[in-house]
Amino acid sequence: MNLYNEYIKEIEERKGQGLHPKPIDSADLLNEIIAQIKDTNNANREDCLKFFIYNTLPGTTPAAGAKAKFLKEIILGQEAVAEINPTFAFELLSHMKGGPSIVVLLDLALGKDEAIAKQAAEVLKTQVYLYDADMDRLKVAYENGNAVAKDILESYAKAEFFTKLPEVAEEIKVVTFIAGEGDISTDLLSPGNQAHSRSDRELHGKCMITPQAQEEIKALQAQHPDKSVMLIAEKGTMGVGSSRMSGVNNVALWTGKQASPYVPFVNFAPIVGGTNGISPIFLTTVDVTGGIGIDLKNWVKKTDANGELVRDENGEPILEQVYSVATGTVLTINTKTKKLYNGDQELIDISRSFTPQKMEFIKAGGSYAIVFGKKLQTFAAKTLGIEAPLVYAPSKEIHIEGQGLTAVEKIFNKNAVGTLSKNVLHAGSDVRVTVNIVGSQDTTGLMTAQELESMAATVISPIVDAAYQSGCHTASVWDKKAQANIPKLMQFMNDFGLITARDPKGVYHAMTDVIHKVLNDITVDEWAIIIGGDSHTRMSKGVAFGADSGTVALALATGEASMPIPQSVKVTFKGSMPDYMDFRDVVHATQAQMLHQFGGENVFQGRIIEVHIGTLTADQAFTFTDWTAEMKAKASICISEDETLIESLEIAKGRIQIMIDKGMDNKNHVLQGLIDKANQRIAEIRSGEKPALRPDANAKYYAEVVVDLDQIAEPMIADPDVNNKDVSKRYTHDTIRPLSFYGGDKKVDLGFIGSCMVHKGDMKILAQMLKNIEKQQGKVEFKAPLVVAPPTYNIVDELKAEGDWEVLQKYSGFEFDDNAPKAVARTEYENMLYLERPGCNLCMGNQEKASKGDTVMATSTRLFQGRVVEDSAEKKGESLLSSTPVVVLSTILGRTPSIEEYKKAVEGINLTKFAPSHKLLVG
Fold first, then answer.
1. What is residue 102's DSSP assignment?
2. Cα–Cα distances in angstroms (integers) from residue 84 to residues 29, 32, 97, 246, 384, in the given order
3. What is the C-alpha to C-alpha distance for residues 736 and 757, in angstroms, rounded to an integer?
4. How many CA atoms lie within 13 A of 217 on its CB side?
5. How far apart are CA 621 and CA 625, in angstroms?
């Protein structure tokens, strides 16, 4: 009983942390527990019964297999347990959500004992997580005249697993809790520096917001036991930055309902709100858990008697309160009228939160059950040779005669499955689409694995062209946490059918490349749909959606995703860039000019940015598409010229071939298949058979933004504006300032060049600038540390081949060593150049950070409070985001440069240039 004794020891350790026993996923441990249950005189028997009944993870975990097997033995009378009679055993099976439990239930339902078969059939009628092998068993039994199989199929055809669920309550009473003022980053709900604990739900729940906030939530629950606590972003958007399934899990853990009495720490039905609504990527995650997300609109922009906006001394619109949602306010959500009330007073229409589809998610306890339920109903009806009755809300299908298609509308129409209309569909239509590429990253991957186990999936869908499991978020430090989690994750995903960054067999070199860069390389068709477990899944080929770990799991298991076709905003360019400007400045200027053109309204939020970039290859264009996460767009699409796209595909082919040469391809030759697809796509473009993707000339857009390059006269910096008097305007990514704003004297404590925002060209810019500085000043001396993390090993290899890595080595004081990776996070930095291992590094903030209170100048994507740098007692930490040359010069000077110093420093440097296409990029 060694495993059991170790488990008891772990339980005692967790007690010291205020934690309950960790849920069991090990079959070996559960078998030891079962052995002690069978021994009626065993001193541990009572505890073992509790562990078996209440603390075993369901789905396809090894423990679930052992549990299902023992329950089957009890039902068949092969084992007798006084506390678990056959009826209770069936109840326990009903809560195990597929996998081994479905196998056992089918064994019993199709067995010879009629009474047992009938009971098993009644349980099966409530289950939806059936896969092809399970459905095949039912089909064969039905075709062989099995009456129980027919009964089950008839129930499935009527979708009784859904129709017999309780209806959604007409009134839901909530009590408000202001989680923060301004945009609330998912980092507040699930901090990146606690990513290692995400798969341990109870432990991870302790990091949500602050201990004080958790106590306040508990106090509200004690004061209002009949109400749900609604977390609110006052004067901001809830859940910006990422999908962060762990964030929604934490909210549900503290404020939601327990999904099953026999599955610990898995809650559902969280309720969240924001003055400006819920970030689209986060709202999808809320739907996954059967939750409710509300656009409160409780503050509006103030207007004068003439209807003109009233502005403050900085030209910012002044907000006025429409109604209060102060902490402790009791509100009523009416799901029938779809209105929000305070007592009898109607506050706002919230019908967008209660569409027919969202009502189904709430009723079913999450969107997965609806996806699998529809599939199961279709199968059953087809097997029975009948037409499936209309149970689920029909998908909204919008066709506007005479209106052309945007790029995303074209992609969705091409990839749509199960549509009723023969007409092309426009934005707003609900569509189920096939997914071509899927990415799982390492800090959410363990949760994705758990989701796959919970939905009883064992192998990747054959529909998916390729899927990749990264190791980038844990690349900086190979500490005990990473060593405990990552090999297990890589083994699971490799077995499931993904290409993995680390080889479980240890044959090929560990590749800690930034996931988005790899996904960008393995996307070989601009008509592709990509789903990835990170908000920066925003490829510059195809259309990519960052998603929660559950949606990633669903895409891996089914090869499908469901969502409305989003509206698009068209972005084009005019004018020309000065020679001393970098494309990163164009990216920031796009955001600033858009906000100016639309009076402060972010027209990008929740929509597709269709950017007519034309002349930039995928590597360089990714700098734009990547930043659209910070623009709060749902996704983005690059419209390229034919030759540019061909060049991008050739680069992708070369990098995929390197992955093959390293030994990363699997038995299905997935990577070789991508090269074959790229060759086919190149041939189609060159022959004129199928040119590069273009929107139609008569496509309809929500808005059109024209970026004037002539207005970009100096580097543009995204500033967290940490001292803004209006707290809601801090840490938003919307404050874009010219370099001259800082007067050449703002102290910079650390520089960072890395993250998915940089490409090989940025590394070459760094090398060129260092050579120039030595030539001009006789030496290179840093007055602030400069941390450099190339995004991929491929880039490092290319820099070595081209001589630039040697330049960087010359000026560095530290270079990563894969043979001796860091085991401890760096806490102090010297004024020198650090060449760090490829990966996310400081951008993620889960392993290493700048010193507290530092002012950081970085090329990365995130400026949220506490992400790259935390506050100190004396000073707020701040992460300013800029181009590579600005970062380099800031660390040499130890301060922001003047525009004159900047221009001099970049003379003769091959910056990332951009010239708008002179071709009309429409179909």
1. H
2. 20, 18, 19, 34, 36
3. 17
4. 23
5. 7
SS3 state at 285? helix
CB 427 within 8 A of CB 398: yes
> What confidence score (pLDDT) does residue 923 get?
82
* Tokens matching residue 698: 């008569």
620 contacts 915 by C-beta, under 8 angstroms: no
Count CA atoms within 13 Å of residue 872 on its CB side: 11
For 272, the token pair is 């969240």
The single residue listed with the structure tokens 């020309």 is: 576
Q: What are the structure tokens assigned to 628, written together?
A: 């659209």
What global pTM score does this model have? Answer: 0.85
Cβ atoms of residues 692 and 645 within 8 Å: yes
N- to C-terminal Cα separation, the chain: 69
The answer to whether 849 and 802 are in contact (CB under 8 A) is: no
Q: Is residue 358 very low, low, confident or very high in pLDDT (cuts 50, 70, 90)?
A: very high
Q: Is the pLDDT of residue 243 over 70?
A: no
Give the C-alpha separation, 906 to 884, whole Å: 11
| 751: its two tokens | 């520089």
Structure tokens at 877: 């930490």
Tell me: the pLDDT tens digits for 168-205? 999 999 999 999 999 998 889 998 778 788 889 999 99
What are the residues whose beta carbons fall under 8 Å from the beta carbon of 23, sequence distance 6 or more? 55, 56, 57, 263, 264, 265
Which residues are within 8 A (CB) of 105 and not within 5 positions of it... i.e. 6 or more apart? 93, 120, 123, 124, 127
- pLDDT of res. 206: 95
Q: Which long-range contacts (CB under 8 A, 24 or more apart) does 315-322 make?
A: 316/600, 316/726, 316/729, 317/599, 317/600, 319/235, 322/297, 322/298, 322/347, 322/348
Is residue 729 within 8 Å of 586, Cβ to Cβ?
no
Q: Specify the amino acid at residue 93.
A: L
Other CB atoms within 10 A of residue 136 CB: 12
Nearest-angstrom CA–CA distance, 588 and 268: 38
Identity of the residue numbered 199: S
The pLDDT, as a whole number, for residue 197 is: 86
**Residues 97-112, mean pLDDT to the nearest whole number:** 95
Phi, psi for residue 110 in degrees, rounded to 5: -100, 10
Phi-psi label, residue 663: left if phi above 0, alpha if psi -120 to 50, beta otherwise: left
Cα–Cα dist 917/630, whole Å: 25
Cβ atoms of 780 and 813 within 8 Å: the answer is no
Compute how many other C-beta atoms are within 10 angstroms of the C-beta atom of residue 332. 18
Question: Within a 13 Å sphere around the CA of 242, how many CA atoms are in the beta-carbon half?
Answer: 26
Distance CA 875, CA 59 (A): 48
The mean pLDDT value of the chain amounts to: 94
Q: Which two tokens stand for residue 115?
A: 């009474």
Question: What pLDDT score was predicted for residue 225?
Answer: 96
What torsion, rounded to 10 degrees, do the Cα atoms 548, 554, 560, 562 define? Answer: -50
- With a CB cutoff of 8 Å and minimum separation 6, the contacts of 378 are 388
Q: Which residue has the tokens 């339902």?
A: 109
